[in-house]
């Protein structure tokens, strides 16, 4: 494998991993939004999703 091929492969792998992480984050945020709609406590949502209380508060502001 040439250096260029290896660098391309590593770049693709990094891009896929970043995409998966972004998807996981979006999923946690969607779960948090659903929980907010159901009236769950922000701190509980934070514990369940791993999102910060600050991020959940931002999501909550955008709901209204």
TrEMBL record:
This protein's name: Transposase
UniProt organism field: Thermosyntropha lipolytica DSM 11003
Stretches the record annotates as Disordered: 1-30
């Amino acid at each position: 494998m040439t250096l260029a091929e290896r660098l391309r492969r590593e770049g693709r792998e990094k891009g896929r991993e970043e995409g998966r992480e972004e998807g996981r984050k979006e999923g946690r945020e969607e779960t948090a939004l659903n929980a907010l709609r159901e009236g769950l406590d922000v701190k509980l949502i934070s514990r369940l999703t791993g999102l910060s209380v600050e991020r959940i508060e931002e999501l909550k502001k955008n709901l209204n």
